[in-house]
Amino acid sequence: MVSLWGTSKKDDDDQDEGVRPQTGESSERTAAPHVSEADERTRLLPPGPREGYLSPDDPAVSPYNLWSVRWLRYFTVFFTMITFLWWVLLLVSIFVSPPGMHARGSGFFDFSYTTLTEGLLLIVLLFFSTPSKAAQVICLVIAVILLIDMILILAVPRLRVEEGWVGIASIVWAVLISIWTVFTDRIVSWGKREEEERLTGRSETRRTLREWCSVLTSTVILVIIAVVAILLSATLILRSRDASLAPPGERYYVDGDKYQIHVFCSGSTTDSEGNKVPTVLFEAGDGPFEGGMIQVAENALANGSVSRYCYSDRPGFAWSDNAPSPFSAGMAADVLSEALARAGEEGPWVLASAGIGSIYSRIFSSRHGHDVSGLLLIEPLHEDLLYRIGSPSRGFLLWAWGIISPLGLDRLPAALFKGRTREDRVYGRSAYQGGKYIKAKLQESLVANSLTKNEVSSARNIQFEDTPLVVISSGIEVRRDSEWEKKQRDLTLLTRNLVGWDIVNKAPSEVWQTYNGREMIEKRLKELVNAQVGQAESEHKTE
Asked: Does Transmembrane show up as a keyword for this record (predicted)?
């Protein structure tokens, strides 16, 4: 091989053996070459003639001599900038959904994949000139895992719908960049070896302490990224499993067909005598209705206390999609009425709600007053206490929890070691761990003390005053918190037709968890339904 300065490796060997090169042609080979304009292979070399090979530690011995390596770095910088802009856009879309950017899922998965992609690109840039076999192998493993995730998202219809084009674009980009990192590392390794052989006469096998530290650091970080990719993949498999659980009712498109709301109804709209009876419309509290109050509804229907009931999962709960951000209680009331209309359900309604669900029911009642024949509020939340829901600290914790939720740090152990089923994850005791649920609670928190408070305050002013009202409170909470007791008392003044205010002793905030609580709720539901039936019969006789 001929070096840059014209001295061949064979000539060096001859000189070591005492054989002097002949004059003429050999002397021409040893003469310093003419200094010409710098090109790809001489750009970093010192000017002027120089004999022999360069030292391996010379800064001129660099893969950056090659245009191919330099262009790889330029493209990597460009990809890093593009990925960062996409990352910022996804971060903003968690709080405010740009037009066309709404994903019917939580939006945390596409953010996680983009964060992983940005991490890979930054590692490549930081340790660009110190490639290693370990980095190539780990990047290849990450690429394979991400490819499996991409296939999974595209193959499972429910995942494909929830992620939308935003999530699909994020995972495809992650796959392409992971392949790019493997390709880049191999090209830099080749370029480094090529320049070492050309300028020093051999490929350098030694590493300096700084290079070893760089290789170790990059390897450790890449291993962490690989573990993150594995966790994302495992959580995605759980989501695929959960997607196979069919909803008991139907999903209906709302808000310009942007997303779907799950609605379920059971029972008859008429009694044994053929009279039309109100339908009880349940609104859940902090969690999905199926995981809590469903027992009350089924018992009331089985015992004949009600003839028909319906419930709808709020956006992000159970089988319902997430709504675009921001999303207030008033918006939820509007999409609920739209979903009920598409389902062919109509009043009169007896609204039964619990906790923060009472905020949603009160707004629905004020906007559909002619169709509402009764209000049952179970441990309702007062609008003056919405600041507890909308505190900045709570919002930050929900956001942070949502960001790490795709890792499945709580769902995976629960599924592997605690026997949590897909029912548990969709609407049961593990539902709070899902990204959709966390996104819904984050949306609720962001506007609780602003948009939602204004909407429910306005609802109070236009609430029909003759609507029958029942308030059921937790004895434990009333005795524990004097402010809570005061606000419960104030809610009994929502209308002028208070049927009763019941305080269930020894009952927690979820009153229906006790036998006395369930019995009281069922009793009051029956009274509200029968009162409407009796009123309808008397009006019919008068006519």
From this structure: yes
